[in-house]
Protein: Beta-xylanase
Organism: Amphibacillus indicireducens
Amino acid sequence: MKTLKESFKDKFLVGAAVNAETIENDQELLKKHFNSITAENEMKPMHMQPEQGNFTFDVADKMLQFAEDNGMELRGHTLVWHNQMPKWFFEDENGNDVSRDELLRRMKAHIDAVVTRYKGRIHAWDVVNEAVEDRGEQVYRQSKWIDIIGEDFIDYAFKYAHEADPDALLFYNDYNESHPNKREKIYQLVKGLLDRGVPIHGVGLQAHWNLYDPSYENIEAAIKRYSELGLQLHVTEMDVSVFEFGDERTDVKEPTKEMLHLQAERYERFFDLFTKYQEHLTSVTFWGISDAYTWLNDFPVKGRKNWPFVLDEKGEPKPAYHRIVK
Ligand code: XIL
C-alpha cells in the first residue's frame, strides 16, 4: 500500500499540522506519510513574541530542523491575525490603543524578526490570516488591525514580509473559502493586492469542512475562481468533521460506520478535485496527523470528540485513506 506522500508525489505536497507534543511523539508517522509540516500554534505571534522584543524561537527551530533533516517543507503560519496575538501588541503602557504608526512599526518589527530568522528555509508564509468577514456585504472582519491601521494593513504586511525574504512565497489564508459570498470577497481582496503590485504569491484554502458542507459545487467553484488569479493555491488546514454544523451531541464515543463511509466518499471527491486542479494546487495540508489528536476535540462543542482525518487513532488507514490512495 502506498503512503500518502508517495501517492500524491507528482501532484502536490501532503502536509500535517504539528505541535510541541506531536513533533516529538509522532515522528515515524510524520516521516512515513508527509512531506510538509505546519506549526499548529507555535509560530503564531502569541508564541513567537509573547512580550515585546522577547522572541521564543525554540519550538519553531526544532520543527524546522526536523523538517530539514527529513526532506520536508515547512509552511510558516502565521504573521498577522486577529487571534492568538499577545495583548501588548495593540496597547500602549496605559492600556490604550497604540497609534497607526506605532502598530505599523510593531508589525514590521515582528515580521522582520521572524521572517529574517528563517529566511530561505520556509516553503510559504501565511502572511495574513482570516481578514475577511464571513457574512453580509462587509469585506473586512472587525479587528484591531483594521480599527487602528485601516484596510491597508494587509498591503503593509505583505510588503514587510517580502522585504525580509524576497524569495519567500507569501500567502493570504482564510476559512469558509468555498462559500460563494466570502469566496468573492476573498477573490476581490487578493485581486486588489495584485492590482496594486503588492507581493503575494498564493491563496490558502483552510478547508475546515464536514460531511455535508460545503457542497462539491461550491468547492470547485472556489478553486476555479481563485485559480483565475494566476497564483498558487494551497489547501492549508484540512479536516472533515463527522458532525454537521449545529450538531452539538457530546455522547458519540466513536464514529459510526455511516460517518466513516460518508467521510470516505467526501475525501475521495475532494482529492479528485485537488488532482483536477493540480496545475494550480501545489500543497494539501491536514490540520493534524491522525485522529489521535485534533483541535476539533472540544471545538466548537466542548467535550466532544471528532475523527476528521484519513488516519485513525493508531495512525492506521481509515476507509477515507483507501479511497484517496489509489
Ligand atoms: C487553531 C489550533 O488548532 C488550536 O490549537 C488553537 O487553540 C486555535 O487555533 N484557523 C487557523 C488556525 O488559521 O491557526 C487555527 O488553529 C484553526 C482555524
Q: What stands out?
A: The pocket of XIL is lined by residues 40-41, 129, 175, 206, 237, 295 (CB under 6 Å). The two ends are 9 Å apart (CA to CA). The chain has one domain: 4-324. The beta strands are 13-18, 36-39, 73-80, 124-129, 169-174, 202-205, 208-210, 232-241, 281-286.
